[in-house]
Design a protein that fits this description.
The protein has 175 residues and is an alpha/beta fold. Helix content is 35%, strand content 25%. The chain has 6 helices and 9 strands.
Amino acid sequence: SIIKNSTISDAIRMLLDTKISRLVVVDNGKHVGIITEKDIGLFLFSETTRQGLDEIPITKIMKPIEFVSQEITLKNSAKIMVEKNISSLAIGEKEEVETIFTKSDLVNYYAENITDEKKVVDFMTHDYESTHTAAPLYKVVRKMLEKKISRLIVKNQNEEAVGIISFRDLFRIAI
């Protein structure tokens, strides 16, 4: 967690030091918000202020926490995340996070427990955004911001997919 009166610079330092992707924001012992690596990255790439990162409060970009009961079903947790376009839920009582449940946790569960009856083709996104290996990073960032997406398929000059560039990759570069 990070205290509410911290700066973006403080949050970046903590995220890099702990190698995690989100921080719960605390104010007077209460959990009042959440800030993610993606939130910071979007801010860094779209902000035009002349203020230094050590002057900008995290409250400028923190989001509210979505609290749920530990009794919530996996299906309902996934539904909330999709409907609210968020990647984590706080398990606990209002203003007191016991733990965080993320999309990665959900994927890990399904990876360990789902049967082989379904195929990727049944669920994959058929329309996707891509870039090329020679594309300047500023164009990649601009495309991600315009499309509000966090990853692009990277193609070579023969139009073959050769990798993925994610928002996390760009976040690390920006820092």
